[in-house]
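To illustrate the input format used throughout this study, we show a single complete record. The first block contains the structure-token representation of the backbone; no residue identities are included at this stage. The design step must infer an amino acid for every position from geometry alone.
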């Protein structure tokens, strides 16, 4: 396999993300390289492309990722950092992530306000934290340590909750707002997560939008849910639902023209379906009123 001349052709750094991007998944990588669709940026799951403990993860998918990076900005979205866990921080994991971000010249690294490990055992789910002062202190401290190591602010996503902790003392919006204030992180607002939590627990999605600091919101995610015995599941397996589109428009009025991503991880459709979803998001972005220029 020929080595990519990355320095010659690479796209601008990902700090300038704008418009409606798409979560890049393996089934579509070859098509993206072949057709070069009109998409302003892509986001990948960083864990899928990280080398750890000297293990060379140099397969065709990694080669394709760097070829796509030559043409498009890329952001990294993680699922394995386990920021909320009481397990020790995995510095080998962070080293692999830092190397990947440097190789891709990717300045946007996002993760979740959740944990995936207990007693050094990793689970295949993002487990939510209770919204308490104790959890907030713990999460803020770990975010600060990770940011110091990576040399940049993380973008933290609000979690989906399928249970309510009885001892929570803060709302989800209050918790995330305090996390920003204490750690200096930025926010990724997942609109589908907000709608799922509102439906399942009667939490106010609009209250969340009003509480978090608008200038900290650097990215928005949109995805589809599934239904299991009247409970909504953040499955990323369907088109964005109409109530989520409506809530997205509310978020744009609050936050302005924020870079937006279409996520689809299960029952992955043709790329054209994702492109249609991204175009719908872009239409809402373009319909925003021009910001006023008051002196």
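Output of the design step:
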């Amino acid at each position: 396999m020929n080595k990519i001349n990355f320095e010659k052709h690479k796209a601008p750094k990902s700090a300038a993300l704008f418009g409606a991007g798409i979560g890049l998944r393996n089934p579509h990588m070859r098509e993206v390289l072949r057709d070069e669709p009109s998409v302003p940026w892509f986001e990948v799951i960083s864990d899928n492309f990280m080398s750890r403990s000297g293990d060379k993860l140099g397969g065709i998918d990694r080669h394709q990722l760097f070829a796509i990076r030559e043409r498009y900005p890329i952001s990294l979205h993680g699922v394995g950092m386990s920021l909320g866990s009481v397990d020790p921080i995995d510095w080998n994991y962070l080293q692999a992530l830092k190397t990947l971000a440097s190789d891709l010249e990717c300045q946007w690294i996002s993760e979740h306000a959740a944990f995936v490990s207990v007693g050094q055992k990793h689970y295949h789910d993002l487990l939510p934290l209770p919204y308490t002062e104790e959890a907030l202190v713990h999460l803020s401290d770990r975010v600060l340590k990770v940011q110091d190591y990576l040399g940049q602010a993380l973008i933290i996503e609000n979690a989906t909750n399928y249970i309510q902790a009885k001892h929570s003392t803060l709302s989800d919006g209050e918790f995330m707002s305090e996390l920003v204030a204490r750690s200096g992180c930025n926010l990724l607002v997942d609109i589908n997560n907000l709608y799922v939590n509102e439906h399942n627990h009667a939490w106010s999605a609009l209250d969340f939008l009003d509480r978090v600091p608008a200038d900290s919101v650097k990215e928005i995610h949109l995805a589809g849910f599934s239904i299991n015995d009247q409970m909504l599941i953040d499955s990323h397996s369907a088109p964005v639902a109409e109530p989520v589109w409506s809530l997205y428009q509310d978020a744009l009025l609050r936050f302005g023209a924020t870079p937006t991503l279409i996520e689809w991880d299960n029952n992955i459709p043709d790329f054209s379906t994702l492109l249609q979803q991204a175009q719908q998001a872009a239409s809402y972005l373009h319909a925003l009123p021009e910001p006023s220029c008051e002196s």
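Structural context for interpreting the output: Residues 133-150 form the longest helix (18 residues). Residues 249 and 284 are 7 Å apart (CA to CA).
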